[in-house]
Specification:
alpha/beta; Isopropylmalate Dehydrogenase; 2 domains; two-stranded antiparallel ribbon; 12 helices; globular; binds 3-isopropylmalic acid; binds magnesium ion
C-alpha cells in the first residue's frame, strides 16, 4: 500500500525547512524501502497570493486523503491586516483534520545543557512533553471585532477535554508516568470544567498515572525554576500555545522543537513549532532541526516505522554533538549544509 505524504511549505522560512524535511524523508524511504508518494500543495500566505485563499480546496482534498501532512510555517507581515490571514488557514487545517491533540516534546540532551538559556544545572535532564488541546477554546469560539470593544468566547465540553486528556495519560504511561494538568481554575469556568473532567477520567481509566493540577501562571514560573521535574503537561489551546514557546527555548532554540498534531486515527499533521521568521527567510539561516524531528514524529505516528524515527533522532543528536548546526545554536552551517551533513551521517 502506497503511503501518501503531503507537504505544505507555507511562508517565510517554511519552504527552506520543508526542503530539509523532504530530503530527510527521501533518504529514509530509500533506506527502509518504503512505498511512499509525496506531493506539495499551496498553503498559508503563499496560497492567498496564488489562490486568494490560505487553504484552497485542492489542498483540502489532498490533505484529507493523505496519511500524513508536513507543514513548514505560515504567516508574515505581508498579510498583516489583510482580509484573509494565513493563520486562519492553519486553524481550518487543524479543524478539518480533527487533530485535537498537539504533542510538543522538549528535551535537553546530555552534553547540550550549554545551549540552554538556563544555567546548566537547571537545564540538565529536561524531558517534557506538552500536550496542547488544538481544536477548541478561544481559538475557535465566536468572536466580535470592533474598534471600541471586542470579544472572544472560550467554550470547552467534557468530551473535548477528555479525548485530549486520554492522549496525555497514554503518553505518560510510555514515559515517566506523571501528568500535570494546567488550567486557571481559580478564575475561569472553562478551567473548572477542564479540571473536573481530567479528574474523572483519571479516576476511571488512568489511576496508575500520577496526576497533579497547576495554575498556568505558576506553571510558567516552574518551567524556568525546575523544568526537569516535569514529564507530561496537559493544557488547553491558548495556554499550550504560550507554554510551548516558553518550554521550547529551554533546549537552546525554538528552531529545535518539533510537533505532531493527532486525532483518533493515525493521520497526523507535523510542523516545527517555530514561526515563519520572515526576517531570516531566504538567507539559509533557519534551523531545520525542528522540521527534521517533526519528520521523525511523522514516521513514528503516521507511517508506523519507529525504527526510522529512532535513526533520525539519534542522528540529530550526533550531528549536534559533532558541532554541526545553524547560527541560533552556535554553529556555522546553513540550513541546507546541516541537512546534507545529517544525511551523510544517517
Ligand atoms: C503555533 C502557532 C499558531 C498557534 C499560530 C500561527 C496561529 O503559534 O502553532 O503555536 O497559535 O497555534
Ligand atoms: Mg505558537
Amino acid at each position: 500500500m502506497t503511503l501518501n505524504v503531503v507537504f505544505l511549505p507555507g511562508d517565510g522560512v517554511g519552504p527552506e525547512v520543508s526542503d530539509s524535511a523532504r530530503s530527510i524523508l527521501e533518504a529514509t524511504v530509500a533506506k527502509f524501502n518504503l512505498d511512499l508518494s509525496m506531493q506539495t500543495c499551496a498553503f498559508g500566505g503563499a496560497a492567498i497570493d496564488s489562490y486568494g485563499d490560505p487553504f484552497p480546496v485542492e489542498t483540502q482534498q489532498a490533505c484529507l486523503s493523505a496519511d500524513a501532512i508536513f507543514l513548514g510555517a505560515v504567516g508574515g507581515p505581508k498579510w498583516d491586516g489583510a482580509e484573509k490571514r494565513p493563520e486562519s488557514g492553519l486553524l481550518a487545517l487543524r479543524k478539518t483534520l480533527d487533530v485535537y491533540a498537539n504533542l510538543r516534546p522538549v528535551q535537553v540532551l546530555s552534553g547540550m545543557e550549554n545551549l540552554s538559556p538556563l544555567k546548566p544545572d537547571l537545564a540538565r535532564n529536561i524531558d517534557i512533553l506538552i500536550v496542547r488541546e488544538l481544536t477548541g477554546g478561544l481559538y475557535f469560539g465566536d468572536r466580535t471585532e470592533g474598534d471600541m470593544s471586542a470579544s472572544d468566547i472560550c467554550t470547552y465540553t467534557r468530551a473535548e477535554v477528555q479525548r485530549v486528556a486520554r492522549i496525555a495519560f497514554r503518553a505518560a504511561r510510555e514515559r515517566r508516568g506523571k501528568v500535570v494538568s494546567v488550567d486557571k481554575a481559580n478564575v475561569l469556568a472553562t478551567s473548572r470544567l477542564w479540571r473536573s473532567s481530567v479528574i474523572d477520567l483519571h479516576q476511571s481509566e488512568f489511576a496508575d498515572v500520577e496526576l497533579e493540577h497547576m495554575l498556568v501562571d505558576a506553571m510558567a514560573m516552574k518551567l524556568i525554576q525546575c523544568p526537569a521535574e516535569y514529564d507530561v503537561l496537559l493544557t488547553e489551546n491558548l495556554f499550550g500555545d504560550i507554554l510551548s514557546d516558553e518550554a521550547s527555548v529551554l533546549s537552546g532554540s525554538i528552531g529545535m522543537a518539533p510537533s505532531a498534531s493527532l486525532g483518533d486515527g493515525t493521520r497526523g499533521l507535523y510542523e516545527p513549532i517555530h514561526g515563519s521568521a520572515p526576517d531570516i527567510a531566504g538567507t539559509g539561516k533557519a534551523n531545520p532541526v525542528g522540521a527534521i524531528l517533526s519528520v521523525a514524529m511523522l514516521l513514528r505516528h503516521s507511517l508506523e516505522v519507529p525504527e526510522a524515527a529512532d535513526i533520525i533522532e539519534v542522528g540529530v543528536q550526533q550531528a549536534i554533538k559533532a558541532g554541526y548546526g545553524t547560527g541560533d545554536i552556535g554553529g556555522q552551517d546553513s540550513t541546507q549544509n546541516f541537512t546534507e551533513k545529517l544525511i551523510a551521517l544517517l
